[in-house]
Amino acid sequence: MRVDCSDLTAEQSSELEARARATLLTAELEATVVISCAAGSAEIRVVAGDESVVLKSAISPSTWREQLLDLLDQALTELRARRAPQTSRPDAEAHEIVPAQTTPPRPVEAAWPPSPAAPPAPRARPIARPERRFQPETEVGLRAATELWGAHFALGAGVGGARRVASRWWSGLRVGFFYVSLPNTFSVREGHAIADATFEPRAFAGLRLSLGAGPSVLVVTPRSDLLAKDGTVRIAVRVEAQLSRPFRWGQFQLAPWLGLRLFSAERGVRVSKSSQLAIGGVLPQVGLALAYRQ
Length: 294
Prior knowledge:
Blueprint: E1 2-5, H1 10-26, E2 32-38, E3 41-48, E4 51-58, H2 64-82, E5 138-149, E6 152-164, E7 169-182, E8 186-199, E9 208-222, E10 233-244, E11 247-249, E12 252-263, E13 267-271, E14 274-279, E15 282-293
Parallel strand pairs: 1-2
Antiparallel strand pairs: 2-3, 3-4, 5-6, 5-15, 6-7, 7-8, 8-9, 9-10, 10-12, 11-12, 12-15, 13-14
């Protein structure tokens, strides 16, 4: 067994080698296995005697364990099928010459007392294949984003973390803020806390879909000679849907994302009875996240 993957750390390579050895032991097949991967693709070569199987496939950074082990299972299954013994048929033209007996054979005297019958051979128990469970992982990182507030772009930042709770599911919590300022009029700050759930579909090449919701507080700071008649603090519920694509380098990943967000109530700023800033409805957002995964 040999693992040669430049995309994996030494710890990840050791883990893959251990799990691949367990798969090979349960396959009841004596073989040599070489796993190599680079630049988002993997190759598995299995050799047993004069037979060999080579399989190649593209792999996703988020599901490389499951993909490589599935590829190894396919290679072992194909190799066992090739090496399956064929039922031999007797040669129809072969004849056995048996000399005639001139005297009847002597009867065989039975031994007394009879020897005890040999105990039956124990039945072989089927070898249980090791269960493949998801590997618990944790992500922590920083986020930068911009949102469209009416005719203005608000800039924001935040921090967050997530934990893998199933093979394809993550749950997380993040906090952040957005800020926009209109010269000589007012500035607006929005702070929020979001609890979200993230799903990684196997068929979408590493894309991740996140849905989240949480409280949002909007604070308006008017210019010193302006009066906020309707108050300066507004509270609502913030709902978000985001689509991201992480790119991994070792234990770090960079994930650009696009999203839509919705507030439970429209909020805004008015100066002299005219609307200067309105925040409401379904509006777009775009951002970039840098995370560390362990």
